[in-house]
Structure formats: structure tokens, C-alpha cells
């Protein structure tokens, strides 16, 4: 069987893997942002939170990792605790991204996120 043989139709499931602060959530946020899969009000909220935290300095950049933070504790601590599933699509394919935690204490959550993935993107910094 070739690469992608586990695909269901045109849906491709991707999980992130890596250590703490390797940029997994930022990568997922970048994919969502660049594919225009973010609602304007969500992007505005992330921009406000980024500015409040001093992210981006004078350039006014946004912290794309905030796009996957669903739990209050994740936003407060700046870490991923639970798997965040996000969806986006192109003309050719639909994707489900599983943003998995990198902290050792949340390994069970990472395994859960990776268990249904067709591929895993391993981030290393």
C-alpha cells in the first residue's frame, strides 16, 4: 500500500508531535491562517489577546498559537494541554489537524490525538 492509503475519501488527518515550545501550535495556526480558515471575529479576538500580551511589538503581529487554545488553562499558561482539532479545506482535499501537547505529563492526550492520524508532523527546534 502506498502513502496515503489510509485516507478516507479526500479527508486527511494530521497530528503534530514534538517537545515543549517546538512550534506545533504555531504551525497549526499558520496553516489555518494561510488557508483562510479563520473567521474574522476569531482573528480579531486573537489579535486583541496578542496585543494585550505584547506579542509582535510595534509591528502588531499575532500569536498564531492562540488559534488552537481552547481551554482557559492553555491560554493562561501558554501551553497545549488537550488535543485541539481544527478543520480546513482546499479545493483538492479536506484536513483535520490535531494539535497535540508536548509536555510529558500530557503524553496520553498526545497518543489520543495521533491514534487517528494519517500522518504526523514532527517538530523539532
From TrEMBL:
Enzyme Commission number(s): 2.7.7.4
Pfam families per UniProt: GTP_EFTU (PF00009)
Record flagged with keyword Transferase: yes
MF (Gene Ontology): GTP binding; GTPase activity; sulfate adenylyltransferase (ATP) activity
Domain called Tr-type G: residue spans: 9-125
Keywords, ordered alphabetically: GTP-binding, Nucleotide-binding, Nucleotidyltransferase, Transferase
UniProt protein name: Sulfate adenylyltransferase subunit 1
Amino acid at each position: 500500500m502506498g502513502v496515503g492509503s489510509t485516507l478516507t475519501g479526500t479527508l486527511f488527518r494530521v497530528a503534530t508531535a514534538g517537545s515543549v515550545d517546538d512550534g506545533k501550535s504555531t504551525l497549526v495556526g499558520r496553516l489555518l491562517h494561510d488557508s483562510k480558515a479563520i473567521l474574522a471575529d476569531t482573528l480579531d479576538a486573537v489579535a486583541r489577546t496578542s496585543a494585550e500580551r505584547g506579542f509582535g511589538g510595534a509591528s502588531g503581529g499575532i500569536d498564531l498559537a492562540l488559534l488552537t487554545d481552547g481551554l482557559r488553562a492553555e491560554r493562561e499558561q501558554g501551553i497545549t494541554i488537550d488535543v485541539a482539532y481544527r478543520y480546513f479545506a482546499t479545493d483538492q482535499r479536506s484536513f483535520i489537524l490535531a494539535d497535540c501537547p508536548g509536555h510529558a505529563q500530557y503524553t496520553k492526550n498526545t497518543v489520543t490525538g495521533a491514534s487517528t492520524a494519517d500522518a504526523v508532523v514532527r517538530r523539532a527546534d
